[in-house]
Design goal:
GO terms for molecular function: ATP binding; cysteine-tRNA ligase activity; zinc ion binding. It comes from Geobacter pickeringii. By secondary structure, the chain is α/β, with parallel strands linked by helices. The chain folds into three domains: 280 residues, Rossmann fold (3-Layer(aba) Sandwich); 119 residues, Four Helix Bundle (Hemerythrin (Met), subunit A), CATH 1.20.120.640; 53 residues, no CATH class. The chain is built from 16 helices and 15 strands. Helix 4 crosses helix 6, helix 10 crosses helix 12 and helix 12 packs antiparallel against helix 13. The two termini are 44 Å apart.
Length: 490
């Protein structure tokens, strides 16, 4: 099965055929760096990191560009409020963005251009648009003329006449049509500016992505991505100015991730349900957040809530426990070439292991369906747990099945950016987070476990049960195994 992606431009799934065989060019709109990133930013960036990883894992050479918008009204307003140059604000939040993305396990794009470093390229595109009659200068500003670009709104499928009826020209704007958008803004007091043929000023928001994508990827490239909120006006305007300037298609496949809802309501600062990545990572492990974001199809809305994060945490913990059980068992399984017949559960596991690579690729080739792919991982985990629950599988075939199961999950984790920790390391991280606020110290827990172990050795089962209940009252759950007793937080 060839890779098929949903193209917002055509409204259908299409076979993905790169412009140049074996190579992929991809541009994803980055953040405006004026504040800390929220979980909507986390979703978009995790989604396109997953796509980047999968395309490369499929043997393609990917040039991935993700920009920083480092000059904007919001950046300027914050800088003026703090009494610092706008670059202080932009550099501060570029650094914060990079920290957040590193915590979420994102791989670095091929290029991470800043808008302010590409003013010359933006001016060149604007000059070309004016020369072709698609833009006009007006007292230091430059606007794109939407009526001169017949396919305008082909991405968002809107109607220009209907939109015009509800639009108006703001005070101070010099537009000919209410839907015309700024390519260049004349400078105002207290704002940063650059010299241009139209006077001192700064670029509009949309022109930066056209100029930077053209520089690094060419006038036509394969994939343009971002959140659904960018379809209009940002991506619509990118298409208009780019295709009007170049006379050729801009991006061939438009991929947009769905929204994040908070407790079934749209995330909004006005509703007070707005969470930054840093706030979420204070409560949950970064791998749990990434796992949660990939547990739904990227185009679907995803409901962010404590309950759903806890369920994601429990699911990821279950997978890690299974991997830990396999690791422990393999250490004790002899590697000698024994050939007893496989038990039914072991045979089932061997079949699931054999099917996993093709099932994973089938899911991912169906428009990057990570939800289905993770479903196949859980299917394998259930079979592995059944085999582990029946005792210690022995023999070369059993060892082969367990080893392949472990390797298969790890390989999928490499593509999705999860399962990269050791089971012990993940358990310790999780325990450390859950231990915060406990009413008993770790030293006291360990002392009681030692006392319980001694009581069990002396067959004093009443005292052993008393200690288990005492710890449970403090939300401590004991886990007994042949290797000893460990504990976790309920």
């Amino acid at each position: 099965m060839a890779l098929r992606v949903y193209n917002t431009l055509t409204g259908a799934k299409e076979e993905f055929v790169p412009l140049e065989p074996g190579k992929v060019t991809m541009y994803v709109c980055g953040v405006t760096v004026y504040d800390h990133c929220h979980i909507g930013h986390a979703r978009a960036n995790v989604v396109f990191d997953m796509i980047y990883r999968y395309l490369r894992r499929s043997g393609l050479e990917v040039t991935y560009v993700r920009n920083y918008t480092d000059v904007d009204d919001k950046i300027i307003n914050r800088a003026n409020k703090e009494g610092v140059p706008f670059t202080v604000i932009s550099e501060r939040f570029i650094a914060e963005f990079d920290k957040d993305m590193a915590a979420l396990g994102l791989e670095l794009p091929t290029h991470q251009p800043k808008a302010t470093e590409h003013i010359v390229e933006m001016i060149e595109v604007i000059e070309r648009l004016i020369a072709k009659g698609h833009a006009y200068a007006a007292d230091g500003d430059v606007y794109f003329c939407v009526e001169k670009f017949a396919p305008y709104l082909k991405l968002s499928k809107r109607n220009l006449e209907e939109m015009q009826a509800g639009a108006r020209i703001e005070v101070g704007e010099k537009k000919r049509h209410p839907m015309d958008f700024a390519l260049w803004k004349g400078s105002k007091p207290g704002e940063p500016y650059w010299e241009s043929p139209w006077g001192a000023g700064r670029p509009g928001w949309h022109i930066e992505c056209s100029a930077m994508s053209m520089k690094y990827l060419g006038e036509t490239f394969d994939i343009h991505g971002g959140g659904k909120d960018l379809i209009f006006p940002h991506h619509e305007n990118e298409i208009a100015q780019s295709e009007a300037a170049n006379g050729k298609p801009f991006a061939r496949y438009w991929i947009h991730n769905g929204f994040v809802n908070i407790n079934a309501e749209k995330m909004s600062k006005s509703l007070g349900n707005f969470f930054t990545i840093k706030e979420v990572l204070e409560k949950y492990d970064a791998e749990v957040l990434r796992f949660f974001l990939l547990s739904a199809h990227y185009r679907s809305p995803i409901d962010f809530s404590d309950q759903n994060l806890k369920e994601a945490e429990a699911g990821l913990e279950r997978i890690y426990k299974t991997l830990g059980g396999i690791d422990a068992l393999l250490e004790g399984v002899p590697s000698a070439a024994q050939t007893p017949s496989l038990a039914d559960t072991e045979r089932e596991l061997a079949e699931k292991v054999e099917q996993l690579p093709s099932r994973f690729r089938e899911a991912m080739d169906d428009d990057f369906n990570t939800a289905q792919a993770l479903g196949y991982v859980f299917d394998l985990v259930r079979s592995a747990n059944k085999a582990l629950a029946e005792g210690a599988p022995s023999g070369a075939e059993a060892r082969k099945a367990l080893t392949a199961a472990r390797r298969g999950v790890s390989e999928i984790g490499t593509v999705l950016g999860i399962f990269s920790s050791s089971p012990e390391g993940f358990a310790e991280r999780l325990k450390g987070r859950k231990s915060t606020g406990l009413t008993i110290t770790e030293e006291e827990i360990e002392r009681l476990i030692e006392e319980r172990t001694a009581a069990r050795a002396a067959r004093d089962y009443q005292r052993s049960d008393e200690i288990r209940d005492q710890l449970l009252a403090h939300s401590i759950v004991l886990l007994d195994s042949p290797q000893g007793t460990t504990w976790n937080v309920k």
